[in-house]
Amino acid sequence: MRGPSAATFGQEKILSITQIHSEFGPLNIQYKTRWLRRSETATIPGHLWIEIRGHGPSLEEVLAPFASAGFSLLPILAVSANAAISDPDVELAFETTPGKKRREYFQSFLSAETNTARKSRRVDTDAALKIVDAVSRHPDSERISRAIEQYRIALKSWRFGYSTLAVAHLWMAVEALTKAFIRAECKARQIEHPKELADAIGVDKANLDKTIRRDRILYGDQECYTRARKASDGFEHGYIGFDELQSESREIRTRLAQHVRAAILELLDIDAETKERLMKEPFSKPMGHWPLAKYLRGTLVSDGDNLAPPGYSYPSMEWKTTIKSCVTNKNGDLDIEFDESFTASLADGVEFQPGSMEIWEPN
Question: How much of the chain exceeds pLDDT 70, in percent?
């Protein structure tokens, strides 16, 4: 399986998982990044590559359950790296039964990786494995897994114009975590029932969920709670205009994500050093996975009013980017050099005077 991902592994790094089970028994799953050699000096990260090996009665019967197992670790990798991972697709599947003369084979023809520059972030594999273990051991594992998947979906919408979707999925993560936090709070206070917890913190039982969401999951951030709930409810029930939703969501999105991710890590039985490492740079800021935005500004100079060349409706510029070099520095980050070239499609006599060339990361 393979697919786009802002979370990447080093060229020789492989994350192997052997504790994933399918209906046909245990599986061995490996996660790594495809590294694409584009020139003598440029080897760039491509798609996330997932290899699943296991036993089953036939290729057709194992395709879906094996693929589902391959998906299972993606939310944890996304939360660990705080970076978007898109849904991968099955590309190749084949039988490797020893001694057979005829073996089943399947291939889906996927789009090739492009040379388009995108931001990426290395996965801390040690931390990711600790999260896998902690989630599997937690009594509210199913709820936490749901929250983690909602967080991954929010990261897939981490770009300009998609903030409303990101906030909606982050709020679903808040809702998924609520009962887990209530049970954890009851355990910490050595009480059994949510009603006793409500009495202990001085609220009506009807307001317990709201209080836990605001004070525990969002760490007492009343403004974040109010605005996030308003945006989520307005989006779900359709009573707020899209422009207002976008504005509200864009302003609250990052704070909400930081609270939700911190709450997930707080619930898990992970050592303090690992949690602290995951809350610092480079993992503290959510990262989407979209091409860098390119803007060209300038002035068209012409004595006439016709600006486009024959056969074209408008004047335009083709901006071509070539990766000149790509190396990994001592911090594990990529240092990339680009060659940029422009080709003008303009009517005769029209001159383009460049003003600025801008490259922006998705926000």
Answer: 98
